[in-house]
Amino acid sequence: MIVRFFTALDKKIGWVLNAAALISSLMLVGLMLFLVLARYVFGWSIVGLLEVIMLFGMWLYMVGGLIASRKREHLVVDFVQTNIKDQQIRRLHQAFLSLVTLVITGFFVYLSYRMLKWGMRRPQHTPGLSIPLWIPQSAILFASVGCALYALRDLIQSIIGNDTHLLVAHEPAESAVEEDRKWKV
């Protein structure tokens, strides 16, 4: 029952993250296109437009990183994992990697929280539109908390052995290996 709850919650969060990434992408591209047209076609200089583009860019990058963490598509070096044949040792290896990831993302949560706290105590603003700098900084805290939660999810799943098909690195299918051997002979 609890697994079903978290699965449904994950799907809803995934939908929100995808929507945020799509909106940020569209706004980023649209505003950049408008900026280029305004500057080079119409000769207008629009104050503060780059600041708004920076806001959407920052949120897009952070939400994109969170989406990659959610789907387990972040950068990995899986040389050791692909050479481990025993399923139990593979789960232990994955649990160790998840624990290390959780500790590192926990450190990033701490650092981003301190950065945001400092930015709110000593408020700075962008020069054109006076946008508080804690708004783009909050994207970093949002992404670091989300990545830490997904690292915790991965640790729990590797410990209890749930969703073990996600723990296996991308290995070639047996038929593909046999087909490759046939061509080498």
What does the model show?
This protein has 185 residues and is mainly alpha-helical. It is built from 6 helices and no strands. Helix 2 packs parallel to helix 5 and helix 4 packs antiparallel against helix 5. It starts with a helix and ends with a helix. About 6% of the residues have low confidence.
Keywords:
185 residues, mainly alpha, 6 helices, 0% strand
Cα distance spanning the termini: 52 Å
Order of helices and strands: HHHHHH
Q: Strand-residue fraction?
A: under 5%
Average pLDDT: 85
By DSSP (H or I, 4+ residues per run), the number of helices equals 6
Task: Give the total of beta strands.
Answer: 0
Biggest β-sheet description: none
Unreliable runs, pLDDT <50, ≥5 residues?
164-175
Net shape: elongated
Radius of gyration: 22 Å
Structural class: mainly alpha
How helical, in percent, are the residues? Answer: over 70%
Oligomer: single chain
Write the layout of secondary structure elements.
Blueprint: H1 2-41, H2 49-70, H3 79-83, H4 87-121, H5 134-160, H6 174-184
Summarize the structure.
This protein is an all-alpha fold and 185 residues long. Helix content is 76%, strand content 0%.
